[in-house]
Amino acid sequence: MPDWTIIKILSWTESYFKEYSIDSPRLTAEILLSHCLGIKRLDLYLQHDRPLQKNELSIFKILIKRRIQNEPVAYITGKKGFFESDFEVEKGVLIPRPDTETIVEEALKILLSDPKNINPKTVLELGTGSGAIIVSLAKAAPGHSYFASDISDTALEIAKKNAEKIVKGKVRFLGSAWFSSLKKIPRFDLIVSNPPYIPSGDIQYLQPEIRKFEPLLALDGGSDGLDCFRSILYEAHHYLVPGGIVLFEMGFDQKNGIQGVFERYPQYGSIDFIRDLAGRDRVVLIKKTIDKNNNY
């Protein structure tokens, strides 16, 4: 039997993934094989005629089986690229998505508006997951104070690891259901969150990679997908400075629903919707009233 060289195993795996309708079959094969061999994807082609050892073939076979059972590539490799950094992920932690980079970009417009950090800001992320958002902000805009919370112990453990690796731990993490553990922390200039916003009834129709593997706690936004927006806006004004901002990621079709939630709270003075690169509503920016004489 001829040797299974890198190029031969890549071609075979690509065809096999196509049979199982795996998205991006060639790219997936490259990512899994480079992970298995501990080399960069480019090196797969620089070493294309290298034969795989028996143990390498055995390990790679296991990775292939996991993928055709719809396990996400990020869980198989234990990492996911997001906003110029690689983040550790595992089951129980939501996998960062490219769409979420939109909220990071909008937050950075606020944080970098004062390039000399004359007035450093205090930033909180609610439901941090892997820490992708808050750590990306701390890396790109140092000099501010960063806090993040999550109700999941698994998520907090992973987020702390990512913060230590990428920004040397310059984020303070708290176990909290939204604001429940934040009573003694000063008020914030900016609160960011990518909350669960998928309507409960829609979860059964999600891709199996999401529905079967990613944490329901990070997906289910209640019957209309807006429960978490209601919960956060109900309390956020108590934790914001006058003129402070809340940035949410949102579903592309939730603009009217979120507008309705916003209108219930006179504590907030304005709302804006920001589109992602595909032209879909993706981020909502809500600003607290700047009336310092109110009781909000």
List the defining traits of the structure above:
296 residues, alpha/beta, Rossmann fold, 7-stranded mixed beta sheet, two-stranded antiparallel sheet, 11 helices
Q: Which fold name corresponds to the CATH topology of the largest domain?
A: Rossmann fold
Structure summary, number of beta strands: 9
Task: Count helical runs.
Answer: 11
Q: Could you tell me how far the N terminus lies from the C terminus, measured between alpha carbons in angstroms?
A: 75 Å
Task: Tell me the fraction of residues in β-strands, as a range.
Answer: 15-25%
EC number: 2.1.1.297
InterPro entries: DNA_methylase_N6_adenine_CS, HemK-like, N5-glutamine_MTase, PrmC_N, RF_methyltr_PrmC, SAM-dependent_MTases_sf, Small_mtfrase_dom
Enzyme class: transferase
Function: Methylates the class 1 translation termination release factors RF1/PrfA and RF2/PrfB on the glutamine residue of the universally conserved GGQ motif.
Structural description of this entry:
Pfam families: MTS (PF05175), PrmC_N (PF17827). It comes from Desulfobacula phenolica. This is Release factor glutamine methyltransferase. It is built from eleven helices and nine strands. The model has no long low-confidence stretch (mean pLDDT about 95). The chain has helices at about 5-20, 25-35, 40-45, 55-70, 75, 100-110, 130-140, 155-165, 210, 225-235, 255-260, and strands at about 80, 85-90, 120-125, 145-150, 170-175, 190-195, 240-250, 270-275, 280-290. It has two domains: about 5-70; about 90-290, Vaccinia Virus protein VP39 (Rossmann fold, 3-Layer(aba) Sandwich). Helix 2 packs across helix 4 (about 55-70), helix 6 runs parallel beside helix 7 (about 130-140) and helix 7 packs parallel to helix 8. The longest helix is centred in the N-terminal third of the chain and has 15 residues, at about 55-70. By secondary structure, the protein is of the alpha/beta class. The protein is elongated and about 75 Å long. A seven-stranded mixed β-sheet has the order 5-4-3-6-7-9-8, sandwiched between helices. It has a two-stranded antiparallel ribbon with strand order 1-2. The N and C termini lie far apart (about 75 Å).
